[in-house]
Amino acid sequence: MPPGKDAAMGEGPAHTSFRFVSCHGLQQMLGRVARDELELLQHLEEAPIESIHHHTHAYFLRHPYLAGAYPNDFATWAAIQVRDRVLGERLAIIDPFDFTDLEALRNALTSIIDDHLTHTPTVPRVVYGEPFYFMTTRLFEIPTTLEARTLREFREGLARAEVAVVYYHLFEAPRRRRPTFDAWLEQVGETSAAEEVRRLHPYASDLEGLRRRVLMLCDESLRRSLRGG
Amino acid sequence: MGTERRSLDQYRAVAPPGAVDTLYRFSERVRAKRFTHVNSTRVGGGVAEMLQCVLPLLDELGIITRWEVLQGDEEFFHVTKSFHNALQGQEQTITAEMLEHYLDTNRQNAAQLDLSGDLVFVHDPQPAALIERRNGGAWVWRCHIDASHPQRRVWSFLRPLISRYDAAVFSLPRFAQRLSIPQYLIYPSIDPLSDKNRDLPAEEVDAVLARLGIPRDKPILLQVSRFDRFKDPVGVIHAYRLVKRHDECRLVLAGGGAADDPEGPKVLAEVMEAATGDPDIHVLVLPDNASVEINALQRAATIILQKSTREGFGLTVAEGMWKGKPVIGGFAGGITVQIVYGTTGYTVNSVEGAAFRIRYLLNNPELARQMGENGREYVRRNFLITRDLADLLALLVNHAGGNAR
Description:
The complex is a heterodimer.
Chain A: H1 5-8, E1 18-34, H2 37-46, H3 49-55, H4 59-62, H5 73-81, H6 85-92, H7 102-118, E2 132-148, H8 151-160, H9 164-176, H10 181-187, H11 191-198, H12 207-226
Helix pairs in contact in A: 2-7, 3-7, 5-6, 6-7, 8-12, 10-11
Chain B: H1 19-27, E1 34-39, H2 46-60, E2 64-69, H3 74-87, H4 96-112, E3 119-123, E4 138-142, H5 152-162, E5 167-170, E6 183-185, H6 202-212, E7 220-224, H7 233-244, E8 250-255, H8 264-275, E9 281-285, H9 291-300, E10 303-306, H10 316-322, E11 327-330, H11 335-338, E12 345-348, H12 351-362, H13 365-382, H14 385-399
Parallel strand pairs in B: 1-2, 1-3, 3-4, 4-5, 5-6, 7-8, 7-10, 8-9, 10-11, 11-12
Helix pairs in contact in B: 1-14, 3-4, 6-9, 7-8, 7-12, 10-13
């Protein structure tokens, strides 16, 4: 019997259980403030790498339900506070999940701002809006009591869990080498669902949207197994 | 009733799914840690109100809390009021004697108060100098006021004291200061079960509106705030008049005057004058304890306004959003972090901008309803007391030797 075949049926035991972990982020200010796009560029080059993570990946933890103008703080600041829609749009299309490491992400962001400033006669600055405050998130892991041994239990646990669980397992777990949704699904034989989870595109959604999508994938698998497919 | 003791389990019905369970699990890492709070009053004011709500809930989570209150004479509170105003940017005369009296009072209190604890959380400038008598534990200073443009003399005096803390907490990034210690951001929160925010039956809302003399025949625009120039109540009346040329509505301006604000009566007189002759403008001067009245007004409103030109955090925005209403707010202070532009309401920069958005929402009721729903969910996730509790537990884990992971 291939590993996890029973689990793929939605009822039988998997090889290892999946323990849902939640998290909470305490936000820390770094004392770096940008009032124009050149200052933004300079701070971006020098800020601790965790600050880049805070303003891109951790954006989703701070906005689990509603997105702002764009799904990262740099783009939103340029568009809303500086009122430079061009830079806002150019930064918005950067998807942090396309980058294997945060330094590469930092380079992509700084290259765009640098190029934008090269082609802008004056440095756009905040006139009526708020400056950009560089921050970081101190993240605390919080184990929940939810645990799944089967796909059905996984589906039920995910539906009941606090939404930060979605953030933790999709965004934090990979870099902390902790259990991820896709790895567990793979382990229990849900190869196609695992592949779909890996292909989820967080940039176009929010955490609740992502949760709905994973639940849908679970439901499809459970329906297939009921039909004996 | 507004500050009656409530159990954490009561919050399950209003907090985000799983949030209360997460608090229980998170608190396991700091169970039996001693968390001491120090402020300067047990009743009155936002900090005392917050502590009355939060501390029993922390107790329920297994944290050993204690609340110490600094005592001082009239002169001391005159000095700290001057500090408060100076930190908020007002020019104040501060003499060397005043500073000495401040330090003396703190020293006397340090000898009498029990300042032990794994984490000692000192609120606002009044007790800040207790740090001089620190005796173990981690100490964190919580600044609840807008100290973004402090008067130099007062900040120069306080800065060395604050630098002796292990960390400081501010309500907005722009309130933070140049300090060598870690500075955290913790947004203020509302208590969804308090009289000001709990669900009210429709009959109770109707009864309150009838008692206040507000007919329900037209859409209601509401601003709840002190009669303070920075809240721009006269600007709200001007915006209402621009709207009224095209759309039927009533305007309700509800608030009180702060006892320590000599400008209040003057601003109220200007508001009354601007409202003269229009029966659809209702100016209500409410007492401090009018929580249910404010709750009912917010629930009866069609659109909630907070057209401040300068603001601290402006929790009336979160209160309005919690009632499921779209909010139009001035682009100031914490209003900008509470309103998601175009999703939960609009931030505006002028009377004309406010009038335009009011008209837009009055003529798009379905959009207004959707924004109200979005706002309530946004508050549920970001500005409820349950999130505040999680932040406090995180501080405890971080600074009080919790089981860090």
